[in-house]
Amino acid sequence: MILYTPLGIESIFPPDEKGWENIRTIPITHGSLTIEKSEAGTWKIVGVNSSNPHDYMDPNYQPGSVWNDS
User: Fold this and answer.
1) The whole model's pTM is what?
2) pLDDT tens digits, 3-46
3) Which of 22, 42, 52, 59 gives the lowest tally of CB atoms within 10 Å of its CB?
């Protein structure tokens, strides 16, 4: 089986099971965000998947920014 993806192999197959505990996919209006828990306990946005091009330009969805669930 060949899997064509822009993601790195670590994103699809984490080296250990604990890798999945710190990653969440949350829904947004036109798609989803991938967030990862940092060592400080906050959630950081690591990816955007949306059918709306404006979501990629939204500063609230910028990868690297802290996700506030409010």
Assistant:
1) 0.71
2) 788 878 777 777 777 767 888 999 999 999 999 998 888 999 99
3) 59
Length of the chain: 70
Rounded (5°) CA angle 31-44-51: 15
**Rg of the Cα trace of the chain?**
13
Please report which residue ranges of the chain form alpha helices under DSSP H. 9-12, 18-21, 53-57
Report the alpha-carbon distance of residue 33 to residue 27 in Å, rounded.
6
Residue closest to 52 by CA, chosen among 68, 33, 29:
29
E strand or H helix at 50 = strand 43-50
What per-residue confidence (pLDDT) applies to 70?
54
SS3 state of residue 35:
strand
